[in-house]
Structures are given as structure tokens and as C-alpha cells.
Amino acid sequence: MSMHIRHQIKIFWIALLIASVPIIITTINDPDLYFHMATGKDMVINHTVDYSKYYYSQVTDNYADQRYTFLGDIILYMVHFIGQDVGLILLRVLMVAMCCYFLFMVSDLKPDFFKLLLLVLLVLGTYQLQMIRNSIISLGCLSLLFYMIDNRRYFGIIFLLLSWCCIHGSYLLAFAFLCILAVCDVLDKSVYDRSIARKHILLWGLCIAVCFIVINFNNPLTASYFNVNSVKNVVQSSSLNATIFKSDPNLLSFDFQNPFLLDRWYIRVSFMVAVFTLCVVRPIRFKYVIPFIAIMTVGLGYVRMVGYIPIVCCYILFTAQRSNHIRKIPQTVCAVILLMVAIGIYTHTDKLLFSFTEFGFKRNMIYSDRCAKIAAQKYKGEITFNTMDNGSYLLWLWYPGKRVFIDTHFAPHPNIVFTAYKGFCNNPEQLKQVCRSAIIPFNTPKLIKNFIKAGWYAEYIDSGNVLLSSLKCEVKVLVDQKEYDRMSDKHKRIFNVVLSICKGV
């Protein structure tokens, strides 16, 4: 490689880094993170999880154990143990860097504007996967899988899936793409090259068969580490008479939608334009068309999979360009820009509106701990109501000394718990029969107002939460002037709104 090419590659990666920093070095927002860290800590110590020690609310007796996520939970816990919040954000940076690097490695390795633009849009479009939880590891793993498939690293593929199936459920998507790409590779060589070695087919078949075995129920990593028979626990809290509420459909059902009946016009348009993109590839290869249609159908049909669309699209376009299968670059560039910007808007904007994302190595404002520590001491052994948004962080702070009411991790609970939770949020007066304290985050000011109107009193206010009491008391603000001055303008506005609600202004 000449010095000129090396210089171009350095400029390429520096430009990508500058463009990506505002997106990847941002606030820790994901409400599931601290649940995974708590279970990771539990698994390091006990090699199992007992959800009855986590929650005051009812825990289901038929919830599948953590055999498919325990390694991811442990990784998150260890990263935080070593690097705290900065370590978690650097994990995001590492996974995004891995994703970009391995996708670049399947291209023709020429650092041009086309690739730079695609990778910048990739960083934007995968924002959903960049939320710090187990799925963030799949961001790097999927691109690594594509690199291994492209270079036929059969043993590497097996080891990757063996590890991946203990980290996050997206290993099923990875296995599906392994099968699809292997079959498409054989079809393309048979149809267009008119030659396919039997050895080549045999190796792909053996690789897929071994992968199927290692990701099976009896994963050897899980069997050797995790006690899979000691996690089924049932707890009925006598204080929570949840049976008075009717059960709702499973909350996870809202993540599913018909991929061909979308309510956002730009997603529909981008899908049609992206399909047209494949038509400029001559001849149309199976390894481009089938994976693309598969990921678009799955990604737009299941919201949690939408972040994988840009990764697969980049892989298809980079390999097509390397093989000189793309003949009309301008049309392809326009189509891909439209597709990936649409996906980026779809994922990035929704998350921004929800999570108050800010630049920097820090947590979301609702993950403050002063009110939580007071509640842990003053109301120890009692039920303290909390919301789904701050539940996992409270679990991380309180466990094992105090349990939480609920968090965003749906799986351990029957539907009736979420129905009860919604009932208490709509009618906080009824909650007084269950507990005498509640801790509500700033991102739900309407809920705080509902509690105040229902006769609850703000007892303490810190930088992100309000500790409420059912007994009359004077509000105490735990934020001094210096801390207030360090807040961002957005944070100050929210703090002032919550403070005025609590003081009845």
C-alpha cells in the first residue's frame, strides 16, 4: 500500500470520527441498561437470578431464564465496574468503530466519498442499536459476521455465534443471514459462474450445521457456567391486589407492525427507491436481493430490528461495488442516501424526543441518586412506587437492600402487573392503600402533577427525581446553586417546571 493511499485512509477515518462524535458520545439513556447490569452482577456472584428479590410486584412463573443473555449482562456489568459511565459510552464507541471497520474491510478498501457518506449515515441509522444494552454488542458482531462470511472464516463464524447466543437474542438474526448468504453464494456461483465446488458446498453445510448445534438449547457455554434450573420463582405481593384490574395485551406487541402498511411516508418511499437501487445492479445477484428484502421485511415489521437495516444495506453495496456489480453509481448513491436518512430520522428523532439526549460522558438526568438513597433509608422494607423509566436504575442502586415496584424489563411480569401500574398512574389516590412513598422522574411532569392533585406531597427534589409522600410535608430541594448553574438550559427548564408543580405554583 502506497504512502498516498495510507494518507487518504487516515483522512477518511478522521473525517468519519469527527462526523460521528456528536452522535455516539451522548447521554446514557436506555432504561433497560441498569437491569442488565444488576442481573450481570447477580450472575457473577450467584450464577443465577431470582426475580422475586428484584420486585415487589408479581413475577411470572414461566419466564425463560437468562441463558441467552447472561454473557451480555456480565459484559455490561464488568465494563461499568471498570470504567463507570465513561466506560459504557466508550463501549458504544468501540462497537460503532467495529461496525464501520469490518464493513469497510468487505469493500474494495479505497477511501472515497461514497464510502464515507455511507458510513456516516450508518452511524446515524443505527442509533437504536447504540442504546447501551445487550443489543449494542450485536452492532459490532453483525459486521464481523459479514466479514467472516465474505472471507469464509468457518471456525471464526462458529465461535462468534457460540458467544453471541449468550449475549443477545439477535444471534437468531445472525444465524438466519448466515444461512441466507451461504445459499445465495452457492446459487450465484451455480447460475452465473456455472461452477461450484462440492467442497465449497460441504464446508458451508458443515458450518451451518455446527452453528445450529452450538446455538441450541444446550449451549455448552451456558451449560458450563449458568445454573439454568434455579431461576423459576413466583412471588405474590399481598399488598398489590392487582386482580382488580383487567389484563391488557402484551406490551411487546406494540413493537410489531405490518412492514407494508407503514404510517411514515418517507419509510415507504425509501423502501421503493431502495428496491429500485437493486435493479441498477446487473445482473441481479441473489446475495444482494434476498438479504435486502429479508432485512427490510424484518426490520420494518419489528421495530427493534430497524437498526440492522443500514448494516445490511452497507454490506450489500460495499460488496457489490468491490465486485464491480454496480454500474450506475449516481443512482445508487441517491437511493442509499434517501433510504438511510429516512431510517436515521425514524430512529434518531424518536429517541431524541423521548430521552433528552445531550452530548457528553454522562447519564440521563432521571438517573440521579439522592432521592433514591433517602428512600432506601427512610422507607427500607416498604413498597416505594416508581415508574418504568427509573425502575432499573433504582434496582441497580437498591438491590439487594430494597426491591423496586417495576421497570421496563417486561419479561419477568404477567400482563396484569402492567395493567395495575397504569391504573396507579391514572389514579394515584388508590396507590395510598399500597404504599406511602413514590419516586417519579422529571421526564413525566404530568404524572408528578397527577400525584400532587391526588393528595401526595413532594418530600425531596434532586436533579432528576421527586420523592413523594402520602403524608403532608414540606418540600426539600437537594440541588444547590452551583449544581443548578452547571445544568444545561434544557435541564434547567425541566427542573423549574417540576419545582413549580411540586410547590403548587
The mean pLDDT is 78
Spatial order of strands in the largest sheet: 1-2-4-3-5
| Topology as a string of helices (H) and strands (E) | HHHHHHHHHHHHHHEHHHEHEEEHH
- Rg calc: 25 Å
**β-sheet strand percentage:** under 5%
Helix content: 55-70%
Q: Major beta sheet, specifics?
A: 5 strands, mixed
Which structural class should the secondary elements be placed in?
A: mainly alpha
- Enumerate how many helices there are, as a single number: 20
Q: What's the shape? A: elongated
- Poorly predicted spans: 224-254, 349-355
**How many individual β-strands?**
5
C-alpha termini separation: 69 Å
Layout: helices, strands, pairs:
Layout: H1 3-24, H2 33-46, H3 70-105, H4 113-125, H5 135-150, H6 154-164, H7 171-193, H8 198-214, H9 220-225, H10 265-279, H11 286-301, H12 308-322, H13 329-355, H14 370-378, E1 384-386, H15 388-398, H16 415-426, H17 428-431, E2 437-441, H18 445-453, E3 457-461, E4 465-469, E5 476-477, H19 481-486, H20 489-502
Parallel strand pairs: 1-2, 3-5
Antiparallel strand pairs: 2-4, 3-4
Helix pairs in contact: 1-4, 2-3, 2-15, 3-5, 4-12, 4-13, 5-6, 5-7, 5-12, 6-8, 7-8, 7-11, 10-13, 11-12, 18-20
